[in-house]
Amino acid sequence: MAQAVEEWYKQMPIITRSYLTAAIVTTIGCSLDIISPYNLYLNPNLVIKHYQFWRLITNFFYFTNMDLDFLFHMFFLARYCKLLEENSFRGRTADFFYMLLFGATILTGIVLIGGMIPYVSVSFAKIIFLSNSLTFMMVYVRSKQNPFIHMSFLGLFTFTAAYLPWVLLGFSVLVGASAWVDLLGMIAGHAYYFLEDVYPRMTGRRPLKTPSFIRSLFADEPVVVARPAHVRFAPPQEEEAQQN
């Protein structure tokens, strides 16, 4: 059993493995009182006035208590982060990292701006960890890129992947969790999906092109597609043959 888990862990792509490890280590460390959540949560005043900039990052690593909700989010983090990195972003590690960076920036900006708006500032002030929202963003992006995959929720009913974020949002409301956390993830996910997939098809411009300095951090290996055996390819047209 332990060997199977080790093999599963080693086979994870680098970003998924790193984020999952940071989340588990941070959450367990807080549960054992090795790390204090008070040193991790997002606090605009401490960030701006006391230069505690690490809070902009660490609030994405803590997933509250070690309970069923924690296991639920670890499952979705491991599954959908891995699916995105291995499929949609296969061979594009830098682009995947940039997607997470974009999502984290959008989520942080929404919370900071929302905290200054009357009537809703109280709700945003309660959101001090954005780890669940970032995980939900990954679920949303994956569902938009693969909307026709058939899925089942707890074996009760089936639906296509396009409705997965809404099913999970409804489940969160039923168990008494804050809907704001999931909604923020959907907003960030839709912003990325629109700017990366929809807007370029409409205009031919790609506003979320990964900066070169981020690309320099990752050495992406080219994706090699093996030529199927026993498959004959049509010979070139006569004109093409003459030109060559």
From TrEMBL:
The chain crosses the membrane at residues 19-41, 53-76, 96-117, 123-141, 148-168, 174-195. It holds the Pfam family DER1. It is found in: Endoplasmic reticulum membrane. The keyword Chaperone does not apply. It is a multi-pass membrane protein. GO terms for cellular component: endoplasmic reticulum membrane. One of its GO terms (biological process) is proteolysis involved in protein catabolic process. Keywords: Endoplasmic reticulum, Membrane, Transmembrane, Transmembrane helix. The keyword Transmembrane applies. Belongs to the derlin family. May be involved in the degradation of misfolded endoplasmic reticulum (ER) luminal proteins. May be involved in the degradation process of specific misfolded endoplasmic reticulum (ER) luminal proteins. This is Derlin. It comes from Actinidia chinensis var. chinensis (Chinese soft-hair kiwi).
